[in-house]
Design goal:
- With 382 residues, the protein is mainly alpha-helical.
- The protein folds into three domains: 62-129, Dna Ligase, domain 1, CATH 3.30.1490.480; 134-233, no CATH class; 241-381, no CATH class.
- The protein has 13 helices and six strands.
- The chain has a two-stranded antiparallel ribbon with strand order 1-2. Strands 3-4 form a two-stranded antiparallel ribbon.
- Strand 5 and strand 6 form a beta hairpin.
- Helix 2 packs across helix 3 (88-97), helix 9 packs across helix 10 (260-275) and helix 9 (243-256) crosses helix 12 (326-333).
- It is globular.
- The N and C termini lie far apart (115 Å).
Length: 382
């Protein structure tokens, strides 16, 4: 081999190696593209199958009961068990994608010729209401006495009987053994009613006119359990709070806020105050301690010596002060992170946030007369 050839040999080797690398990279890119295409095609055909009727030739009616307070995930599981859809989890995500979450409880006649969109539409339209003997709605933020009153008004049960059951420690102990999210915390001496905050606000319907109180309460607790688990799953949150603490904070947020944005902001303020070892100082806990709904909270009111008075006691109150809805519970897992330590709610519903006590006091002085005038106007109308 000549000297010139010897000099060119490394260059030839480098070129050969470069071609090999290019071929390897090309094959890797092609393999990746093929895998992506396979994934996209697989996903496409899966979604197509999941949305299509299970059997276009079988129109045999299938009676499906959607229980009161069922979650979207729970409804998906029911439909999958009845072989009306391919997958309950896909149903849940598709329903949320379509913003179709306001399903109505009841008994439906569906069949396997219905596609997913038709099923969603039917569940939102609702069943034949005449099939139900008992129907009532519990709004968010009610005290347990108010819930008992609503149940008594809409059923054949006496209000005293409802309260006796809800106050029963033996009944509460049995429920602690039955439900994982119920703990011994609900049996604490400072708790007024063991199930305060645990009866989920929603519409409840029952076929039987003589539906027992136990069945009614069980439906409400089951709904709370399902919603709580669903929120935990969807938020992927791992905070240090147990369900009792979450519902306690959520109940305060529910009583303080009117919008989803304010719920998350107020949740953030509560966490900031707890982290700074500040008392929560929230008016709804004072009203709960007083045992009456207060239009305004006075200096005399906040002097009450009571475990639920967050002006006098540090940390969380012993338990929930009302029944929070899903959005208030979700706010505890997804609070808005800010530097705010104070908030003030105006008569108009607007909530004003501040970082310092001086700012808060200035806001308080600016808008306090609104509440005084509104209270005087209300008293004059009465």
């Amino acid at each position: 081999m000549s000297e010139k050839q010897e000099m060119n040999q490394p260059k030839k080797n480098q070129a050969r190696d470069a071609r090999k690398v290019r071929r390897i990279v090309l094959w890797i890119v092609l393999a990746f593209i093929v895998l992506v295409l396979i994934g996209l095609l697989t996903g496409y055909f899966y979604v197509r199958a999941a949305m299509a009727p299970m059997d276009e030739t079988d129109d045999t009616p299938v009676e499906v009961e959607i229980p009161s307070g069922a979650t979207v995930g729970g409804i998906g599981e029911i439909l999958e068990e009845e072989h009306l859809i391919v997958n309950g989890t896909f149903f849940r995500y598709y329903a949320r994608f379509q913003n179709a979450t306001q399903f109505q409880a009841g008994i439906y006649e569906l069949d396997q010729t219905m596609n997913l969109d038709e099923i969603l539409e039917t569940l939102q339209e609702g069943p034949d209401r005449e099939a139900y003997s008992v129907s009532f709605t519990i709004p968010e933020g009610l005290w347990i006495e108010d819930i008992a009153e609503t149940i008594a008004q809409e059923t054949d049960h006496d209000e005293d009987d409802v309260m006796n059951l809800l106050e029963s420690e033996d009944y509460a102990e049995d429920l602690v053994d039955e439900y994982d999210f119920l703990t011994e915390d609900i049996l604490h001496d400072d708790i007024r009613y063991p199930l305060e905050g645990y009866l989920f606000p929603a519409m409840y319907e029952f076929v039987e006119e003589d539906t027992s109180l136990e069945v009614i309460v069980d439906s409400m607790l089951q709904r709370t359990s399902e919603v709580y688990d669903q929120v935990v799953e969807e938020t992927g949150s791992e905070n240090d709070l147990d369900p009792h603490d979450v519902l306690t904070l959520a109940s305060i947020v529910e009583r303080e806020a009117q919008t989803a944005e304010d719920r998350r902001l107020i949740a953030g303020v509560l966490f900031n105050r707890l982290e700074d070892d500040m008392q929560l100082e929230v008016d709804p806990t004072v009203a709960y301690a007083q045992g009456e709904h207060l239009y305004m909270t006075s200096l005399e009111d906040i002097d009450i010596d009571h475990p639920f008075n967050t002006y006098q006691n540090s940390g969380l109150p012993p338990g929930p002060i009302a029944s929070p809805g899903e959005d208030a519970i979700r706010a505890i897992f997804e609070p808005e992170e800010t530097e705010y330590l104070f908030f003030y709610a105006r008569v108009t519903g607007e909530v004003i946030y501040s970082e310092t006590f001086e700012e808060h006091e200035e806001i308080h002085e600016t808008y306090r007369d609104e509440w005084i005038e509104a209270e005087e106007e209300e008293e004059s109308e009465e």
